Amino acid sequence: MYLLAIESSCDETSASVIKADGTTVENGETESPSLQILSNRIASQIPLHTVYGGVVPEIASRAHAEAVSSLTYKALSEAGVSLSDIGAVGVTAFPGLIGALLVGVNFAKSLAFANGIPLVPVCHVYGHIAANYFTHPDLKPPFLALVASGGHTSIIYAKSYTEFETIGRTRDDAIGEAFDKVARVMGMPYPGGAEMDRIAYEGDPTALKLPSAAIADDTLDFSFSGLKTAVINHLNTLSQKNIPYVPADIAASFSSAVVSSVVKKLDMALRRTGATRLVIAGGVAANSHIRAALEEYCQKHTNVKLYLPEKSLCGDNGAMIAAQAYFEFLRGTRADTTLNARATMEE
Ligand code: KG4
Ligand code: ZN
Fold first, then answer.
1. Whose atoms come closest to the Cα of 7: which ligand?
2. Looking at the CA of 92, which ligand is closest?
3. Burial classification of residue 85, based on how many CB atoms lie within 10 Å of its CB (0-12 exposed, 13-18 middle, 19 or more buried)
4. More exposed terminus of the chain, fewer Cβ within 10 Å: N or C?
5. How confident is the model at residue 32 (pLDDT cuts 50, 70, 90)?
């Protein structure tokens, strides 16, 4: 079947068409799914928000409203299909910026009901996880997933394609948010995560001693706010005293603290759940230091197989929403005209 999906939860409008097949088994799950991206159009709003140093929700909603319709028709034409070929419309319904989400939800609702196509609401965070099914056709639940982006940092146990348990989370800032804020204080344009990743190679990871973001208890929770504040306070102190610093050293020290915190809590989570597959997802899953550290971890712990998403599918995109929509569709999830967007994970 063909699925069309719309994503508009933050600062990227995206529309994608995928072809999905697989055998549905008794409990609504699927066996041997095969997912193929036919189009994955992304209209990034980053240039609009960079001048403000972060996402401005009202500007985001307006830009989604301007882009969503033409982007969708471009995605359909690139895929070589028309609306009458589409078996389900997926849409990100939560979590995210409420005004931004409402643009996608209302557009998808109109498109689906005007054309008699089933509408499937999708959780953005689970969509990030589903991006991995394109890269790894052999990936099957159960597995452990780290979802790390500008808005989310969670350790999630995927029991099946559609059943998830969040077993660890950040208590304050998301990893990407912390990367972006440290980058901003060093004068890098928003979002600075990828640039921090790049310059960290040129710096000394031991230059600055930083607190761990792994909360020192038996939970699987993080706190990135303390780590971020420690770096920013250090930079402010240096600037007050007119002492120069090496941005690469700061980036390397910060990355090293992030990496060791992530590895520590994932190690705890893997032991606790007995999971033998580890997946990472979300914009921060593109971070090469995190990827390398987890590769090293899995080389040492040969009972755990690592699944890394393609870098181009780490950030927000419609294809990941279409992939998750497929599994939700098979499971029987449908929305009616009362579908609403939600800012948070929980109702
Ligand atoms: O998943 P995403 O596109 O949007 C959200 O759902 O938040 O993630 C965007 C986040 C930004 O904070 C960005 O700086 C971060 O992902 N990011 C990175 C890298 N590439 C993107 N952070 C660290 N290293 C990277 N290579
Ligand atoms: Zn995201």
1. 2
2. 2
3. middle
4. C
5. confident
